[in-house]
Specification:
The protein is α+β, with helices and mostly antiparallel strands. It has one domain: 3-Layer(aba) Sandwich (Aminopeptidase). The chain is built from 4 helices and 5 strands. Helix 1 packs across helix 2. The longest helix has 13 residues. The chain starts with a strand and ends in a 21-residue tail after the last helix.
């Protein structure tokens, strides 16, 4: 079931999926930091299975006029290759397609993004400005 809204998944559920897809380790993120990320999101999307377990999620940050970015689209490995990522991306496109949508796609997934109508854009740059895990 596809859900969207401000409180459709918890920081613990976010943490569990981050760990399952190996985007984070138990030492690299905190529940308090993830709670802040959730609260700062413009829109959140989640997909739950028949057992009501969160198996996929996406977050959006947007000014709702010019700019939208997708920080994460994550699908638990046990639920990958079932169209859930596509479902999330299509829902985001439906809700925010009136803006320019930016996201950093993982290398190797280019064909997936292009199949959804996205073009490869500019190169991005990243830097973490915190050193202390407590700052997260």
């Amino acid at each position: 079931m596809l859900l969207k809204g401000p409180e459709i998944f918890t920081a613990q559920e976010f943490f569990n999926i981050l760990i399952s897809v190996k985007w984070a380790t138990e030492e690299s993120v905190t529940l308090m930091g993830l709670k802040k990320a959730i609260e700062s999101s413009t829109q959140m999307y989640g997909i739950r299975n028949e057992k009501n377990e969160l198996v996929a999620l996406a977050r959006v940050l947007s000014d709702n006029y010019l700019f939208t970015t997708i920080p994460e689209v994550l699908v638990d490995p046990s639920s990958q290759k079932q169209g859930l990522g596509k479902m999330l991306m299509n829902e985001i496109k439906k809700d925010f397609g009136h803006t320019v949508i930016f996201f950093g796609g993982q290398k190797g997934n280019e064909q997936f993004y292009e199949s959804l109508g996205y073009d490869k854009g500019m190169q991005s740059y990243t830097r973490k400005f915190f050193n202390d895990p407590q700052e997260r």
